[in-house]
């Protein structure tokens, strides 16, 4: 009797494993089909926009002349966000996982997680009403004292609606994503590795540098790249904060700013018609390719780190 029950239990586990495996495979296939559908739609609808005349390109002589300033603005805003958010996110994750007492770390973790639930339009309104005006004096000081640096050449914006303000808002938006992932990766570091480093006389920071960071390297790269993907595709916050004029400039404190692909699509699409719609979809295809390339590179870097640790 007991043998029959045991065989039934084993058979039940096999059925459960098969069901779970089938569901996981089905979910993966649905994602691939959806991704392929988006790619096919962008290609078919965007191809006519590649050869659109000048009147549909906002004055640009070619599609690439139209889209290049948008690509530049997208990458610049995302880069500003990453430079600001990455060290803050790693530091906050370390505080939560290794430095702060548990009674303090848990509330901090909850607050960071709640930031991810704030709608992007709220960040955009906050950037216009609060952050931008607060940064105006700083922009003026930079224009007067650091104008020899191309980033702060000025003239300073009087509204605070600059590419730097947009990058700062994006940094706050990606902060909870990167922090949450890094926190979980840091917490999964084998306790024996950490205790061995401390037993050999390492300080807490030396233990983190020699035991935690090597173990979490691939996860940190993935977290940063996920944050980059969020920054590249953000629409409403950038559209609300940025005063864009479609130029290419490294000046981050003036009112003359490059726009981003996503923000330009959101602002121009309601009034677009004819080939202009195809031009906007073609620019979306460019953003799709950039995002796909970033995620592919992140997966390659993370996989290489995992293989190195496995040796």
TrEMBL record:
<feature type="domain" description="ABC transmembrane type-1">
    <location>
        <begin position="71"/>
        <end position="298"/>
    </location>
</feature>
<comment type="similarity">
    <text>Belongs to the binding-protein-dependent transport system permease family. CysTW subfamily.</text>
</comment>
<keyword id="KW-0813">Transport</keyword>
<dbReference type="InterPro" id="IPR051124">
    <property type="entry name" value="Phosphate_Transport_Permease"/>
</dbReference>
<keyword id="KW-0472">Membrane</keyword>
<dbReference type="InterPro" id="IPR035906">
    <property type="entry name" value="MetI-like_sf"/>
</dbReference>
<feature type="transmembrane region" description="Helical">
    <location>
        <begin position="275"/>
        <end position="298"/>
    </location>
</feature>
<keyword id="KW-0592">Phosphate transport</keyword>
<protein>
    <recommendedName>
        <fullName>Phosphate transport system permease protein</fullName>
    </recommendedName>
</protein>
<keyword id="KW-0812">Transmembrane</keyword>
<feature type="transmembrane region" description="Helical">
    <location>
        <begin position="108"/>
        <end position="131"/>
    </location>
</feature>
<keyword id="KW-1133">Transmembrane helix</keyword>
<comment type="function">
    <text>Part of the binding-protein-dependent transport system for phosphate; probably responsible for the translocation of the substrate across the membrane.</text>
</comment>
<keyword id="KW-1003">Cell membrane</keyword>
<dbReference type="InterPro" id="IPR000515">
    <property type="entry name" value="MetI-like"/>
</dbReference>
<feature type="transmembrane region" description="Helical">
    <location>
        <begin position="235"/>
        <end position="255"/>
    </location>
</feature>
<dbReference type="Pfam" id="PF00528">
    <property type="entry name" value="BPD_transp_1"/>
</dbReference>
<feature type="transmembrane region" description="Helical">
    <location>
        <begin position="63"/>
        <end position="96"/>
    </location>
</feature>
<dbReference type="InterPro" id="IPR011864">
    <property type="entry name" value="Phosphate_PstC"/>
</dbReference>
<feature type="transmembrane region" description="Helical">
    <location>
        <begin position="163"/>
        <end position="182"/>
    </location>
</feature>
<feature type="transmembrane region" description="Helical">
    <location>
        <begin position="20"/>
        <end position="43"/>
    </location>
</feature>
């Amino acid at each position: 009797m007991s043998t029959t029950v045991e065989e039934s239990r084993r058979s039940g586990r096999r059925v459960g494993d098969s069901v779970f495996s089938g569901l996981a495979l089905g979910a993966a296939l649905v994602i691939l089909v959806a991704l392929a559908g988006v790619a096919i739609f962008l290609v078919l609808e965007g191809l006519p926009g590649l050869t659109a005349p000048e009147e549909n390109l906002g004055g640009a002589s070619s599609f690439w002349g139209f889209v290049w300033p948008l690509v530049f603005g997208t990458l610049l805003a995302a880069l500003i966000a990453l430079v600001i958010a990455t060290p803050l996110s790693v530091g906050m994750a370390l505080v939560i996982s290794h430095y702060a007492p548990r009674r303090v770390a848990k509330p901090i973790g909850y607050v960071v997680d709640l930031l991810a639930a704030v709608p992007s339009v709220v960040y955009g309104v906050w950037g216009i009403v609060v952050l931008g005006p607060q940064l105006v004096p700083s922009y003026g000081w930079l224009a007067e004292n650091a104008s020899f640096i191309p980033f702060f050449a000025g003239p300073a914006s009087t509204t605070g609606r600059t590419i730097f303000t947009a990058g700062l808002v994006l940094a706050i938006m990606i902060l909870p994503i990167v922090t949450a992932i890094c926190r979980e990766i840091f917490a999964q570091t084998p306790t024996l590795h950490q205790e061995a480093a401390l037993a050999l006389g390492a300080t807490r920071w030396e233990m983190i540098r020699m035991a935690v960071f090597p173990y979490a390297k691939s996860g940190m790269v993935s977290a940063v790249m996920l944050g980059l993907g969020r920054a590249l595709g953000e629409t409403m916050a950038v559209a609300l904060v940025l005063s864009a004029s479609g130029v290419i400039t490294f000046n981050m404190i003036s009112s003359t700013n490059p726009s981003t692909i996503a923000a330009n699509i959101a602002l121009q699409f309601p009034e677009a018609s004819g080939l202009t719609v195809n031009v906007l979809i073609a620019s979306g295809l460019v953003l799709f390719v950039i995002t796909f390339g970033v995620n592919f590179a992140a997966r390659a870097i993370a996989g290489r780190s995992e293989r190195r640790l496995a040796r």
